[in-house]
Amino acid sequence: MHGRARPPVPGCLESDRHRPLASDEHGKGAGRIRSRSENSSPPLKAPASRRLVTSDWGEWTEEQVSAIRQADRWRILEGLDGPGPRFGSDRSHGAGLVSFASNDYLGLAAHPAVVGAAREALDRFGAGATSSRLIAGDRTVHHALEDRLAAWRGTEAALVFPTGYQTNVAVLTTFGSGARIVSDELNHASIIDGARLSRADVQVYRHGDLEQAGRLVAEAPGRVLVVTDSVFSMDGDVAPLGGLSEICARHGALLVVDDAHAVFPLPDVDPEALVMRVGTLSKALGSQGGFVAGPRRWMELLVNLGRSFIFTTGLAPASTAAAMAAVEVIDSAEGAGRLDRLRRHTDAIRPGHPSPIVAVVLGEEGAALAAAAALRRQGLRVPAIRPPTVSPGASRLRVSLSAAHDESDVARLGRALAGLVSVQ
Ligand SMILES: Cc1ncc(COP(=O)(O)O)c(C=O)c1O
Q: What was the pLDDT predicted at 125?
């Protein structure tokens, strides 16, 4: 791949990430912030004449496919059988496989209490919620989970959604509309998309840069919302929540924290700050869905204004009940034991790292793909993450650890990684 001129990649891929600086001004800190219009999706990069002239869907499709393929970014789905992390056989290699790719950090997706709760809910409520919650899809199990999540998070109320993605979209479109949204450049795609859909004045700050975030908040003419992942999904690092919440408290801004990947303890937030916490039921809770926790009035507002809540079928009752059972496990002595085990696994790969997501940055896309393939040949599934998900030159292996791994799985991974690179 090195040295080969890349063909244009369709806009939907190129616009995956927030960008705080104009690309030609990337440097150490200097640069301007992109305006709202610059942050919106760029047009497809096919030549203008073709864009206007091609009326043939088949031709258009093949153009898209070949542009992605030529950029070496064509991705495929592969059906693995079972809940993981150990798979008996793998379609492409026919050998046993241990996955270090899932977000089932505490190993609850296949926990008997979690699966049992889902089964009971299937019998009681059926397979689906059958309509949006405001029409006829609201079930007692949704309210039970919302009350439990609010108690768990120490907030007045909570609201569940079919996915974490939809949760971020609803929160940002509801509270961001007519406001300024100040967003970390490495925030998750669902935050980027929610911010775009909100039509807010979106301002992106360099990753973790409190000085820049503070300036963008202070200069805002009206309501301001600061949004950040607490644990960043591709690097596994933690946002400066203390500093961000102090900025918000000083300026009356609302801080929205996305805790999707949060498992280990996080920095405290300023008690004076207005904070809303977004979470997902699909990662450490092992189920499916998303939630937001905060003051009751805000949850009520989301029910009334959040389009990705209103215009979609309610979360499946089985997923809802599974998440509730998972919260109970996490809150028990067993949950504490699972967390300790995850801590030990993480320390075995990168001592003291603040999350179970460990990025092994290798640079070029080819290097990351080759490393992932080499691990795969050893029966270890570790995904290569490359542009547009991360910036060019920052391609990496993304290891995610789980309490469902055992010591020998982790030791095997450690040896295999040491054979490839020295883990940073
Ligand atoms: C930081 C972050 N927020 C939100 C989401 C979306 O959550 P869900 O998978 O429940 O839609 C993800 C998913 O990867 C994520 O990484």
A: 98
Asked if CATH classification 3.40.640.10 holds for the domain at 112-330, the reply, yes or no, is yes
Tokens of 304: 């009334």
Task: Please identify, by atom number, the ligand 1 atom nearest to the C-alpha of residue 229.
Answer: 1
How would you classify residue 413: left for phi > 0, otherwise alpha for psi between -120 and 50, otherwise beta?
A: alpha
Identify whether the C-beta of residue 108 lies closer than 8 Å to the C-beta of residue 284.
yes
Instruction: From 183, 228, 283, give the residue whose CB has the most ligand 1 atoms within 8 Å, as the site to mutate.
Output: 283
pTM of the entire predicted model: 0.88
Note the CATH number of domain 86-105+356-420. 3.90.1150.10
Domain spans, the chain:
86-105+356-420, 112-330
Helices (H), ranges, 71-186: 112-125, 140-153, 164-176
Secondary structure of residue 258 in the 3-state scheme: strand
- Of ligand 1's listed atoms, the one at least distance from the Cα of 188 is 1
* CA–CA distance, 228 with 253 (Å, rounded to integer): 13
Mean pLDDT by 10 residues, the chain (424 residues): 42 56 31 32 44 82 95 86 80 72 97 98 98 98 98 97 98 98 97 98 98 98 97 96 98 98 98 98 98 98 98 98 98 98 98 98 93 94 91 94 97 94 48
As for ligand 1, residues whose beta carbon falls within 6 Å of it are 163-165, 168, 188, 190, 229, 233, 258, 260-261, 280, 282, 290
Distances (CA, A) of 251 to 214, 221, 352, 384: 9, 11, 34, 40
Q: Measured in angstroms, how far is the CA atom of residue 252 from the centroid of ligand 1?
A: 27
